[in-house]
Write a structure and sequence with these properties.
Length: 348
């Protein structure tokens, strides 16, 4: 069906609107405080995961290291967002502003660009952590289709992140209009709805993929219906992020692209992403399940029985590798059968 170009242009223009009114320090500070609160709690969740893993296993697995790398974009994003929330951007009614306020808004409009990139970088790092955990989980199932699906999933995450970066930097032309305050650079440069919608769509689609990907292994398991439902709910925590993203998109547009509201909702989504991507691991810590490092107990065994067991010494590293720290219980609870090579080693 042919859609006239002028109709598309009018629909695009209808999405944009006039700038919102400027906020005072009294109305800005609560959002700034909540943003720092969300960042601090997200950082705490990550640190608890890393410290808990190392205490239990004396090593960090690959997805733990990936989650550790997410601390960098988390803190960098908040550093830039702090300036943006304090000084504002060019998306505001400029009536009655002093030259100093205009200069700060120009700087805030510059800093909001890297803040958006680091925000997306943290979200996608958290998604990749979940994908890496699924690789560990599915890696013990002798089915090539699962591993190929994981390769496709990781490639899809990379492509969507690149799309978000492109949407962040290509909406406004010329480029310096992103931070131009006077004269008005136009709604495309002030409100950046292309970046908002591109990131939102990519965020929702990737979260749906991460929710749906583990479903086949649940359907093939021998678990009771009640257990399947509880595990499906555990894997479906990312649906919380989808709801947050939808509210952030609609709420931002309704508020004429208000940057304070946009940054506040982004901070809440960061906290939710940190909680969802670490929930399974932290849950295993709370339940105190899984193989942990061996601890010597005085008087429990004799010296000869402890030291003169070469067969046990050879088996323990293999079991530790197969048990994947404290997360092997999740795999075992799924009722899946290990491959013959794994089953033979474990039976020994």
């Amino acid at each position: 069906m042919y859609i006239p170009h002028d109709l598309v242009a009018r629909g695009s223009q209808a999405l944009y609107s006039s700038p919102p009114n400027a906020q005072t320090a009294v109305t800005r500070n609560p959002g700034l405080l909540v943003s720092w609160w969300c960042t601090a709690f997200a950082l705490t969740i990550i640190i608890v995961r890393l410290v808990g893993r190392y205490i239990r296993t004396e090593k960090l697995f690959r997805e733990d290291k990936i989650m550790a790398w997410s601390i960098a974009p988390l803190l960098l994003r908040m550093a830039f967002a702090h300036c943006v929330l304090r000084w504002g951007t060019n998306n505001v009614v400029l009536t009655g502003m002093t030259p100093l306020e205009l200069s700060r808004r120009e700087l805030g409009s510059v800093l909001v660009l890297p803040a958006r990139i680091f925000y997306a970088a943290f979200l996608w790092t958290a998604k990749y952590t979940v994908a890496e955990f699924l690789r560990r989980l599915y890696g013990q199932v002798w089915k090539k289709s699962y591993q190929q699906g994981l390769y496709i999933l990781r490639g899809f995450l990379a492509i969507t992140f690149i799309a978000v970066c492109i949407g962040t930097f290509t909406e406004c032309s010329p480029f310096h209009h992103y931070w131009q305050v006077v004269p008005d650079p136009g709604p495309h440069c002030r409100q950046a709805y292309t970046q908002l919608l591109t990131l939102g769509a990519a965020d929702i689609v990737t979260d749906l993929v991460l929710v749906c990907f583990p479903i086949p292994i649940l359907l093939r398991s021998n678990l009771p219906i009640k257990r399947k439902v509880s595990l499906a709910a555990l894997f479906s925590l990312s649906l919380i992020l989808i709801g947050t993203t939808l509210y952030r998109i609609t709420g931002t547009i309704e508020r004429h692209g208000n940057q304070q509201f946009r940054s506040l909702l982004a901070s809440l989504e960061i906290l939710a992403a940190a909680a969802c991507s670490n929930a399974i691991v932290l849950g295993s810590f709370i339940r105190d399940r899984g193989v942990k490092k061996q601890r010597f107990k005085h008087g429990s065994t004799s010296n000869s029985s402890t030291l003169d067991r070469p067969s046990i010494a050879r088996i323990r590293p293999l079991r530790a590798a197969l048990s994947y720290g404290s997360d092997i219980d999740l795999f075992q609870n799924l009722g899946m059968r290990l491959g013959p090579e794994f089953a033979a080693d474990r039976s020994s």
